């Protein structure tokens, strides 16, 4: 089944809109895609910014091929997850571990895309290797100290506004993502998505099996308004609470496109230099979303290393 149609398949609706109640009373939303076998390898997918648990549908065909169960998680305030005020980057691993316990997963992998990259690295720092078998970062943001050189102007303006003039950033997000905040017109939402893509990414997103999923996922990101996106940018552009050089995990894979102007490849190169056991693979000429055309490689690469 194509990954775009899986979101409309009635038999998969229950898996797409799951949630648990955490110990502190918050809801944590998640969705499951890929293999349904009892012996499937579990992988937590951490969505981009903006994004939601539904991003994980992109993994469905390749995950089925290699017997991987992909669990997409909504961060606080996105999709089905309750907001959490004043949250920090290192708060998230505890939520993911609580979900793992609920799902009776003793061991698992984590993969973060784009704005989900820092959260994946937080897991690599905070979750014991006896539990976390490996971490993948695809086009993941690096520490804010690296600056915005190489990013497209829209990202540079938005991130700096959120850091220094949040009132202006809120207006920019409200205007730029108005169709997603309304969430009623799929055609108009997809048009906004395409306008925010560079030409190379437009080719990727024009394919229904990619663009439809990303559109529905971003609509979920704004289901509760724009606050979660504002908070997410604040978190990844603030002090992470740890140094990347102190990450102890031994199975860390990094994948970046050399033509990415959302998250420049220089961020991946920096992370490889800083993290002792990280290995970077660069995809020549790939832009931001294009990198997700290599999901099959990601799964084989990450899980093959974790099983040795």
Descriptive notes:
This protein has a domain of 215 residues: 3-Layer(aba) Sandwich (Rossmann fold), CATH 3.40.50.1820. Helix content is 40%, strand content 16%. The chain has an eight-stranded mixed sheet with strand order 1-2-4-3-5-6-7-8, with helices on both faces. The chain is globular and about 45 Å long.
Distance between the termini: 31 Å
Could you state the order of secondary-structure elements as H and E? HEEEHEHEHEHHHHHHHEHEH
Q: Whole-number average pLDDT?
A: 91
Describe the sheet with the most strands. 8 strands, mixed
Unreliable parts: none
Shape: globular
Query: How much helix, percentage-wise, in residues?
Result: 25-40%
List the helices and strands and how they pair.
Blueprint: H1 13-16, E1 18-21, E2 27-34, E3 41-46, H2 60-65, E4 68-73, H3 92-102, E5 108-113, H4 117-126, E6 132-138, H5 153-164, H6 166-176, H7 178-182, H8 186-195, H9 199-205, H10 208-221, H11 227-236, E7 252-257, H12 265-274, E8 278-283, H13 295-306
Parallel strand pairs: 3-4, 3-5, 5-6, 6-7, 7-8
Antiparallel strand pairs: 1-2, 2-4
Helix pairs in contact: 5-6, 8-10
TL;DR of this structure?
With 308 residues, the chain is of the alpha/beta class. It has 13 helices and eight strands.
């Amino acid at each position: 089944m194509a990954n775009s149609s899986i979101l409309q398949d009635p038999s998969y609706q229950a898996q797409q809109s799951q949630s648990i109640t955490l110990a502190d009373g918050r809801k944590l939303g998640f969705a499951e895609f890929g293999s349904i076998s009892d012996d499937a390898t579990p992988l937590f997918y951490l969505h981009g910014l903006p994004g939601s648990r539904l991003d994980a549908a992109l993994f469905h065909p390749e995950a089925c091929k290699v017997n991987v169960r992909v669990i997409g998680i909504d961060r606080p305030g996105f999709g089905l997850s309750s907001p959490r005020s004043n949250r920090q980057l290192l708060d998230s691993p505890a939520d993911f571990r609580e979900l793992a316990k609920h799902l009776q997963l003793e061991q698992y992998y984590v993969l973060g895309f784009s704005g989900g990259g820092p959260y994946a690295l937080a897991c690599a720092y905070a979750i014991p290797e006896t539990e976390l078998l490996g971490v993948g970062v695809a086009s993941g943001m690096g520490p804010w100290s690296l600056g915005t050189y190489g990013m497209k102007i829209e990202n540079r303006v938005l991130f700096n506004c959120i850091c220094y003039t949040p009132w202006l950033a809120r207006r920019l997000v409200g205007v730029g993502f108005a169709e997603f905040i309304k969430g009623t017109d799929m055609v108009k939402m997809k048009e906004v998505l395409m306008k925010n893509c560079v030409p190379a990414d437009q080719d990727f997103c024009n394919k229904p099996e990619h663009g439809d999923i990303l559109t529905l996922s971003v609509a979920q990101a704004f289901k509760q308004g724009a606050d979660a996106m504002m908070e997410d940018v604040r978190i990844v552009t603030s002090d992470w609470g740890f140094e990347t050089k102190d990450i102890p995990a031994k199975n860390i894979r990094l994948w970046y496109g050399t033509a990415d102007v959302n998250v420049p490849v220089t961020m991946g190169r920096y992370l490889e230099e800083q993290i002792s056991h990280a290995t970077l693979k660069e995809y020549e000429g790939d832009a931001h979303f294009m990198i997700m055309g290599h999901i099959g490689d990601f799964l084989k690469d990450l899980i093959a290393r974790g099983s040795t």
